[in-house]
Write a sequence for this structure.
């Protein structure tokens, strides 16, 4: 093979809470994203105890995709997208998370959304839970601290699997499931209280998610055996800072914390290293007898992963740190960085693809990758984002090298994102990722008008030629 497969899934990615808006429309309940205020560069978002009058919550309107999805999907089709990765907002379907019956208005919205995609031949790729934990379940159960969440998640899955079984083929259970160890409140609605043991809370909650994911895979395959149900993780390529053995060891241990999750979801069991890791922390997971069987029988069909930057591991106590995708990485002197301090490392993506494929030998799907940057609208309305094109071009080359030269099976690429949206980490709009510009600022002001950036036309050509003209 000297080119990507003809059925390679070129697409784009968003999440419901970062683009839909309409946070209280059609019976929708509050999610954890709906109580997250805007932050800013280097400023953490605040998660309030409900919606407080006078505070600004970016997800409440976001880019108003809820009302504008037909216009946006038409632009995605113009760009040539083969697939569109989005998520289903749990609280649109079950406003409190634990109702006996789903909300028909919410189900109907996603019916219409998926129908609009399919009209243009765009394959929906759906993340079931993408940082959208129902706030009512956080208050009632402490979120994923409780095993009760497993059955409630499965009720959600059953409703959407049955409703969309003829419309959606590709699913992923939890977005960046390993981020529960990095930002538990954003990932799972878990705020560690004073006096709580962080690791004990997080790894018990993670176990509940892993069991829920495995049972969802089984359920989905029962409802439609043709479903392709994957996991999704943040993949943080780690380099040892030096060839010093201690640096090599810490680099290994750093990535092991993330393989903890993929090992369970792909192999169907905790690795011996993971078991020992928990034991060394004095943690004994409170499990049910059927958990092991569920994990074993609920292995995923593919691995979806996000890759934005690589990281450096060191034993040196005086190391200088830079930004990263929720990881404070040691500065790499061989790499340039984005305005937000994230290293730019296309070769790291090739390494990630190789590492994952060699370890698991199942299909891979790069479902997030992109450059957050400040875009300038020229007087004539044009937006020249050559820096984004350069970033994406180099990462597409890395994917091609992994597939063509290294023999990795990669089924698709959905850059983050096909359209500007609210940044998950900071709540900003000025940190833009999209091929399509949305007129809205960090204060929520703007016309919401859409316009094509230069990268829109670059990606259109990339897709038309299956990655040959980049």
């Amino acid at each position: 093979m000297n080119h990507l497969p003809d059925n390679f899934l070129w697409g784009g990615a968003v999440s419901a809470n970062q683009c839909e808006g309409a946070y209280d429309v059609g019976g929708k309940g509050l999610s954890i994203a709906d109580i997250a205020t805007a932050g800013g560069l280097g400023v953490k978002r605040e998660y309030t105890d409900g919606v407080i009058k006078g505070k600004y919550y970016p997800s409440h309107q976001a880019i108003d995709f809820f009302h504008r999805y037909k216009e946006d999907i038409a632009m995605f089709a113009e760009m040539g997208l083969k697939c569109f990765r989005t998520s289903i907002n749990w609280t649109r379907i079950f406003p409190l998370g634990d109702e006996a019956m789903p909300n028909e208005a919410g189900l109907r919205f996603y019916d219409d959304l998926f129908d609009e995609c399919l009209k243009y031949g765009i394959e929906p790729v759906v993340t079931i839970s993408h940082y959208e934990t129902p706030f009512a379940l956080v208050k009632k159960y402490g979120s994923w601290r409780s095993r009760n969440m497993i059955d409630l998640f499965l009720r959600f899955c059953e409703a959407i699997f049955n409703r969309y079984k003829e419309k959606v083929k590709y699913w992923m259970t939890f977005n960046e499931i390993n981020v529960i160890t990095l930002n538990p409140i954003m990932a799972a609605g878990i705020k560690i209280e004073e006096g709580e043991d962080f690791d004990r809370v997080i790894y018990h909650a993670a176990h509940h998610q892993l069991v829920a994911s495995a049972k969802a895979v089984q359920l989905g395959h029962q409802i439609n055996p043709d479903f392709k149900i994957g996991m999704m993780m943040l993949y943080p390529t780690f380099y040892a800072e030096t060839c010093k053995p201690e640096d090599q060891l810490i680099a290994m241990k750093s990535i092991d914390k993330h393989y903890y999750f993929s090992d369970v979801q792909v192999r169907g069991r905790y690795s011996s290293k993971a078991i020992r890791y928990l034991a060394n922390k004095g943690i004994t997971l409170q499990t049910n007898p059927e958990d092991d069987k569920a994990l074993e029988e609920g292995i995923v069909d593919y691995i979806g992963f996000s890759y934005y930057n690589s990281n450096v591991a060191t034993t040196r106590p005086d190391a200088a740190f830079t930004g990263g995708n929720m990881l404070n990485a040691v500065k790499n002197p061989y790499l340039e960085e984005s305005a937000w301090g994230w290293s730019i490392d296309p070769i790291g993506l090739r390494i990630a693809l190789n590492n994952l494929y060699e370890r698991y030998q199942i299909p891979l799907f790069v479902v997030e990758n992109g450059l957050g940057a400040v875009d300038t609208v020229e007087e004539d309305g044009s937006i020249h984002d050559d820096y984004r094109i350069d970033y994406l071009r180099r990462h597409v080359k890395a994917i091609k090298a992994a597939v063509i030269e290294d023999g990795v099976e990669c089924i698709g690429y959905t850059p983050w994102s096909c359209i500007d949206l609210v940044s998950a980490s900071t709540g900003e709009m000025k940190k833009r990722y999209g091929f399509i510009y949305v007129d809205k600022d960090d204060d929520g002001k703007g016309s919401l008008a859409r316009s094509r950036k230069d990268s829109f036309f670059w990606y259109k050509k990339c897709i038309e030629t299956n990655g040959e003209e980049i």
User: Anything to note?
Assistant: The chain has 14 helices and 14 strands.
